[in-house]
Task: inverse folding
């Protein structure tokens, strides 16, 4: 069955926030098969449109959907961003948070390398401190062993502290 572009567009709009209708709900309501709706959503996403899964809140969107929202709003000023967010049932702060996450994700390698370098330095310092402590304890143990051997030799030579 062929559907008019207007009907298809109207159904796709119901998948968008603030409606966030799930495909099974729309299929039952509109009398269109779920497979057809999934195909429409897939084609719209391939065109670059933002169509998150309808059964999730914006915080439950996939990383790809969040990234698409960030890209779509990148050139908008504050008023345009607010209007865009109102149309989709979002808050501008959510989009800003997603943008920061995207920026940090691209900087992950450098941050990870710096963190690992700092950890490695701290581990080396800790290792040196432990080695110094071990040397001190080995010296103390050797001294105690030497004193014990000397006291046993002295005991053997002069006997047990007998007073005459």
Result:
């Amino acid at each position: 069955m062929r559907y008019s572009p207007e009907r298809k567009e109207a159904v796709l709009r119901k998948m968008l926030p603030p409606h966030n209708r799930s495909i099974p709900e729309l299929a039952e309501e509109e009398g269109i098969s779920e497979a057809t709706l999934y195909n429409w959503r897939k084609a719209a996403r391939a065109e670059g449109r933002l169509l998150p899964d309808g059964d999730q809140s914006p915080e439950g969107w996939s990383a790809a959907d969040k990234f698409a929202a960030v890209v779509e709003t990148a050139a908008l000023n504050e008023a345009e961003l607010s209007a865009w967010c109102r149309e989709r049932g979002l808050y501008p702060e959510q989009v800003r948070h997603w943008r920061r996450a995207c920026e940090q994700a691209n900087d992950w390698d450098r941050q990870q390398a710096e963190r690992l370098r700092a950890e490695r330095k701290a581990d080396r310092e800790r290792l040196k401190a432990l080695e110094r402590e071990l040397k001190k304890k080995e010296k103390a143990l050797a001294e105690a062993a030497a004193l014990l051997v000397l006291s046993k030799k002295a005991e053997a030579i002069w006997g047990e502290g007998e007073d005459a």
In short: The mean pLDDT is 84. The two ends are 123 Å apart (CA to CA). Residues 4 and 10 are 10 Å apart (CA to CA).
